[in-house]
Here is the input.
Amino acid sequence: MFEEEFVVEPMRMEQLDQVRRIERACFPTPWPRNAYRREIEKNERAHYLVVRTSEPAQEPQRQFPLSIFPFGRSGSRDVVGYCGVWVMLDEAHITTIAVDPDYRRLGLGQLLIIQMARIALQARATRMTLEVRMSNEGAQRLYRKYGFSDGGVRPRYYSDDFEDALIMRSEELKSPSFAERMDAGEEELRRRVRWTTRL
Ligand SMILES: CC(C)(COP(=O)(O)OP(=O)(O)OC[C@H]1O[C@@H](n2cnc3c(N)ncnc32)[C@H](O)[C@@H]1OP(=O)(O)O)[C@@H](O)C(=O)NCCC(=O)NCCS
Here is the structure.
């Protein structure tokens, strides 16, 4: 069992710097700050979540011997992952998901997928969809574990290198097999990490 405890909650504007730090570590083309602001404050169909440690970790003291900060500066850091989903009528589209490289393979990606599925179900969506880089096998394995399957290709989808995107679609969210997958996933996760949700 991983010792730190995690909290999943709606993303807040004051967490954006931390979210963008993770984003820069994960994606070649980060979103502009305003895009997040629009999503969080204006887009009623959008649900953005963070997963954070329950206790903030203190960043190492940074000393600036010749600077105007003679006593150094410190800050706290607790966001370790984030995701977003748009619910449009019966479809819930995952717009982004990322986990801090220092916190991968603990189950936090799964935790975020499960929470997005719960939000989608509550909003009466029947399926989840997403796009993923053809070369991103790790993320594809995560999605397949939750019953997503291939739904086509968007050629040259990514603007930085024109890589194709694989479209993936979940099975019917209300199907017994999806519910079983979620329950089994959650049970497996409970053996690996401790978390609470504040959604
Ligand atoms: C994809 C990502 C969110 C997964 O986060 P994570 O917290 O490490 O995922 P989990 O620990 O929940 O992994 C769940 C399962 O997914 C699969 N998986 C995840 N990362 C994998 C990898 N790098 N290689 C192979 N399988 C992987 C495994 O089946 C894993 O289960 P296991 O650890 O029991 O074997 C994370 O790697 C990431 O942030 N990548 C960069 C951003 C990105 O690519 N986002 C997806 C955009 S579409």
Strands lie at 5-10, 46-58, 76-88, 91-99, 127-133, 149-154, 165-169, 194-197. The radius of gyration is 18 Å. The CA atoms of residues 62 and 73 lie 6 Å apart. Residues 66-74 have pLDDT under 50 and may be disordered.
